[in-house]
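Q: I have 203 residues here and want to know how they pack in 3D. Can you give me a structure?
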Amino acid sequence: KQKLDIAVQPGKSIEGIVLFPDGRPAPETMVYLATPGENMIIGPGPRVGYTKADSTRTDAAGQFRFPATQGQWCLAAFRTEGYAETDNQSFTAPAKLVLHPWAKVAGIYLQDGKPLAECPIGVQPYPPHYDQDPSRAQIGYMLSTTTDERGAFSVSGVPPGLAAVHSAPAGSRSAFGAPSRWDVVSLASGQTARLAIGTASRH
Protein backbone atom coordinates (compact mmCIF):
# COMPACT_ATOMS: atom_id res chain seq x y z
CA LYS A 1 0.00 0.00 0.00
CA GLN A 2 1.13 3.47 -0.84
CA LYS A 3 1.47 5.84 2.10
CA LEU A 4 0.17 9.37 1.66
CA ASP A 5 1.58 12.19 3.74
CA ILE A 6 -0.86 15.07 3.84
CA ALA A 7 0.32 18.34 5.30
CA VAL A 8 -2.45 20.49 6.72
CA GLN A 9 -1.65 24.17 6.43
CA PRO A 10 -3.00 26.10 9.39
CA GLY A 11 -5.07 29.16 8.52
CA LYS A 12 -4.15 32.63 9.63
CA SER A 13 -5.74 33.95 12.78
CA ILE A 14 -8.01 36.99 12.63
CA GLU A 15 -6.27 39.62 14.69
CA GLY A 16 -5.73 43.34 14.91
CA ILE A 17 -6.22 46.44 17.00
CA VAL A 18 -9.25 48.65 17.66
CA LEU A 19 -8.62 52.39 17.78
CA PHE A 20 -10.64 55.35 18.98
CA PRO A 21 -11.42 58.00 16.33
CA ASP A 22 -8.41 60.01 17.56
CA GLY A 23 -6.06 57.05 17.01
CA ARG A 24 -5.68 55.92 20.62
CA PRO A 25 -6.01 52.17 21.35
CA ALA A 26 -9.50 51.23 22.51
CA PRO A 27 -9.18 48.75 25.41
CA GLU A 28 -12.12 46.73 26.74
CA THR A 29 -13.96 46.97 23.41
CA MET A 30 -16.23 44.11 22.38
CA VAL A 31 -15.41 42.57 18.99
CA TYR A 32 -17.78 40.13 17.27
CA LEU A 33 -17.03 37.57 14.56
CA ALA A 34 -20.04 36.49 12.51
CA THR A 35 -19.91 33.39 10.32
CA PRO A 36 -22.67 31.77 8.20
CA GLY A 37 -25.54 30.92 10.54
CA GLU A 38 -23.82 32.65 13.48
CA ASN A 39 -24.98 36.22 12.94
CA MET A 40 -25.53 39.37 14.98
CA ILE A 41 -28.04 42.22 15.19
CA ILE A 42 -27.15 45.47 16.93
CA GLY A 43 -29.90 46.92 19.10
CA PRO A 44 -30.41 50.27 20.83
CA GLY A 45 -27.93 51.45 23.39
CA PRO A 46 -25.90 50.63 21.35
CA ARG A 47 -25.80 47.05 22.52
CA VAL A 48 -26.20 43.56 21.09
CA GLY A 49 -29.83 42.87 20.29
CA TYR A 50 -29.28 39.29 19.15
CA THR A 51 -26.18 37.27 18.46
CA LYS A 52 -24.82 33.81 17.82
CA ALA A 53 -21.50 35.31 16.78
CA ASP A 54 -18.24 34.54 18.54
CA SER A 55 -16.94 37.45 20.62
CA THR A 56 -13.91 38.70 22.45
CA ARG A 57 -12.79 41.83 24.26
CA THR A 58 -9.74 43.91 23.35
CA ASP A 59 -6.86 43.92 25.81
CA ALA A 60 -5.24 46.95 27.44
CA ALA A 61 -3.48 47.75 24.15
CA GLY A 62 -6.71 47.53 22.12
CA GLN A 63 -5.68 44.25 20.51
CA PHE A 64 -7.91 41.28 19.69
CA ARG A 65 -7.51 37.82 18.20
CA PHE A 66 -9.79 35.09 16.88
CA PRO A 67 -8.69 31.63 15.70
CA ALA A 68 -8.46 31.05 11.96
CA THR A 69 -11.88 30.82 10.30
CA GLN A 70 -12.59 29.29 6.90
CA GLY A 71 -15.03 30.77 4.43
CA GLN A 72 -16.95 34.01 4.62
CA TRP A 73 -17.06 36.07 7.82
CA CYS A 74 -17.80 39.57 9.11
CA LEU A 75 -16.16 41.39 12.00
CA ALA A 76 -17.59 44.28 14.04
CA ALA A 77 -16.28 46.28 16.98
CA PHE A 78 -18.39 48.83 18.79
CA ARG A 79 -18.84 50.79 21.97
CA THR A 80 -20.37 54.12 22.99
CA GLU A 81 -17.69 56.09 21.13
CA GLY A 82 -18.20 54.45 17.75
CA TYR A 83 -18.41 51.51 15.36
CA ALA A 84 -16.10 49.65 12.95
CA GLU A 85 -16.78 46.75 10.59
CA THR A 86 -14.82 44.66 8.10
CA ASP A 87 -15.04 41.27 6.39
CA ASN A 88 -12.84 38.49 5.04
CA GLN A 89 -12.50 40.14 1.62
CA SER A 90 -11.01 43.39 2.89
CA PHE A 91 -9.28 42.21 6.06
CA THR A 92 -5.47 42.02 6.23
CA ALA A 93 -3.93 40.94 9.53
CA PRO A 94 -2.95 42.59 11.70
CA ALA A 95 -5.73 45.06 10.96
CA LYS A 96 -6.53 48.47 12.36
CA LEU A 97 -10.22 48.94 13.07
CA VAL A 98 -10.90 52.64 13.64
CA LEU A 99 -14.14 53.37 15.48
CA HIS A 100 -16.29 55.87 13.59
CA PRO A 101 -18.74 57.96 15.63
CA TRP A 102 -22.33 56.75 15.42
CA ALA A 103 -24.79 58.50 13.14
CA LYS A 104 -28.29 59.65 14.05
CA VAL A 105 -31.63 59.84 12.24
CA ALA A 106 -34.17 62.49 13.23
CA GLY A 107 -37.29 63.82 11.58
CA ILE A 108 -41.03 64.25 11.53
CA TYR A 109 -43.85 62.05 10.29
CA LEU A 110 -46.61 63.92 8.46
CA GLN A 111 -49.87 63.16 6.73
CA ASP A 112 -51.54 65.90 4.72
CA GLY A 113 -49.23 68.32 6.45
CA LYS A 114 -50.30 67.24 9.94
CA PRO A 115 -47.98 65.45 12.41
CA LEU A 116 -48.73 61.81 13.24
CA ALA A 117 -48.18 60.76 16.87
CA GLU A 118 -47.42 57.30 18.31
CA CYS A 119 -46.31 55.87 14.97
CA PRO A 120 -43.59 53.19 14.96
CA ILE A 121 -40.29 54.18 13.32
CA GLY A 122 -37.57 51.65 12.52
CA VAL A 123 -34.07 51.92 11.07
CA GLN A 124 -32.04 49.12 9.46
CA PRO A 125 -29.26 48.85 6.85
CA TYR A 126 -30.04 49.38 3.19
CA PRO A 127 -29.94 47.05 1.45
CA PRO A 128 -30.60 44.79 4.45
CA HIS A 129 -27.44 43.08 5.74
CA TYR A 130 -29.49 40.63 7.72
CA ASP A 131 -31.77 38.07 6.09
CA GLN A 132 -32.57 34.41 6.34
CA ASP A 133 -29.82 33.15 4.02
CA PRO A 134 -27.92 30.60 6.17
CA SER A 135 -24.95 30.62 3.79
CA ARG A 136 -24.03 34.25 4.55
CA ALA A 137 -22.28 35.77 7.56
CA GLN A 138 -24.18 38.89 8.49
CA ILE A 139 -24.02 41.79 10.93
CA GLY A 140 -27.00 44.10 10.88
CA TYR A 141 -29.06 46.33 13.11
CA MET A 142 -32.72 46.95 13.89
CA LEU A 143 -33.43 50.14 15.84
CA SER A 144 -36.86 51.49 16.64
CA THR A 145 -38.78 54.28 18.34
CA THR A 146 -42.21 55.98 18.10
CA THR A 147 -43.18 59.50 17.10
CA ASP A 148 -44.14 61.98 19.82
CA GLU A 149 -47.21 64.23 19.93
CA ARG A 150 -45.57 66.54 17.37
CA GLY A 151 -44.82 63.63 15.02
CA ALA A 152 -41.11 63.97 15.77
CA PHE A 153 -38.70 61.06 16.19
CA SER A 154 -35.01 60.46 16.81
CA VAL A 155 -32.89 57.30 16.55
CA SER A 156 -29.26 57.40 17.66
CA GLY A 157 -26.48 54.82 17.69
CA VAL A 158 -26.77 54.02 13.97
CA PRO A 159 -23.74 52.77 11.99
CA PRO A 160 -22.74 55.13 9.13
CA GLY A 161 -23.85 54.20 5.62
CA LEU A 162 -27.11 53.82 3.75
CA ALA A 163 -30.12 53.11 5.96
CA ALA A 164 -33.79 52.37 5.39
CA VAL A 165 -36.10 54.33 7.70
CA HIS A 166 -39.36 52.42 8.10
CA SER A 167 -42.58 54.01 9.31
CA ALA A 168 -46.01 52.58 10.07
CA PRO A 169 -49.41 53.93 11.17
CA ALA A 170 -50.23 54.39 14.85
CA GLY A 171 -51.29 51.13 16.45
CA SER A 172 -48.98 49.01 14.31
CA ARG A 173 -46.95 46.44 16.24
CA SER A 174 -43.74 47.24 14.38
CA ALA A 175 -42.36 49.61 11.76
CA PHE A 176 -40.72 46.67 9.99
CA GLY A 177 -43.92 44.83 9.09
CA ALA A 178 -46.79 45.61 6.74
CA PRO A 179 -48.42 48.04 6.39
CA SER A 180 -45.38 50.28 6.36
CA ARG A 181 -43.34 52.53 4.12
CA TRP A 182 -39.61 53.15 3.96
CA ASP A 183 -37.29 55.93 2.90
CA VAL A 184 -33.55 55.60 2.21
CA VAL A 185 -31.12 58.04 3.83
CA SER A 186 -27.33 58.35 3.75
CA LEU A 187 -25.82 58.51 7.24
CA ALA A 188 -22.47 60.21 7.81
CA SER A 189 -20.31 59.39 10.81
CA GLY A 190 -21.06 61.69 13.75
CA GLN A 191 -23.82 63.50 11.83
CA THR A 192 -27.61 63.67 12.03
CA ALA A 193 -29.66 62.86 8.93
CA ARG A 194 -33.01 64.68 8.95
CA LEU A 195 -36.07 63.30 7.23
CA ALA A 196 -39.62 64.51 6.71
CA ILE A 197 -41.69 61.36 6.16
CA GLY A 198 -44.85 61.92 4.18
CA THR A 199 -43.30 64.41 1.79
CA ALA A 200 -41.55 61.81 -0.40
CA SER A 201 -42.82 59.04 -2.65
CA ARG A 202 -44.07 55.85 -1.08
CA HIS A 203 -41.94 52.66 -1.33
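Q: Anything worth noting?
A: The chain has a mean pLDDT of 88. The longest strand covers residues 103-111.
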